[in-house]
Amino acid sequence: MNENAFLAIFPFLFIGGWLIITALLWLFSGWKALQDRFPDHDELPLKRMHFQSATFGDGFFGSNYGGCLRFDVCRSGLRVAVWRIFGPLSQPFFVPWSEITTDTKRFLGLPHYVFGFYRFRLGKPEVKCLVLNKRAALRIAEASEGQLIMPPPDAS
Q1: Least enclosed by CB within 10 Å: which of 25, 36, 60, 116?
Q2: What is the CATH number of the domain that holds 59?
Q3: Model confidence, pTM
Q4: Torsion of CA 122, 125, 127, 130, to 10 degrees
Q5: Are the C-beta atoms of 63 and 25 separated by less than 8 Å?
């Protein structure tokens, strides 16, 4: 293949590969299950948090969304959205506060106050969990006006 032919087909190969990778991430991260179970609905946010990071899942195979999430804290629940470029199939989903339970998560066995993470268990029964850093989780809880119940920092 000559250089001109490669340059002509490279954009199509790149875009095709990108779509396959984001589709697999959408499926295996649990995003598809969450958007099916918790469809989005219109509600004005009390607080909108851009450029957030979280991990979908709790184990070795968790899917990390670093800096590309948006959390909308609304009166009746939490909306989670991703930048379109990182999730062309990923629709925003909206989880009511009554469907979110929280607990703390340790990192490398260290106490929670060293590396603070919170686990948001989405759904009853749980569809997927979302692991957030302490700062983001506490900002969401504060903006929820008491709707999101957080465990004490030393619980774990």
Answers
A1: 60
A2: 2.30.29.30
A3: 0.86
A4: 30
A5: yes
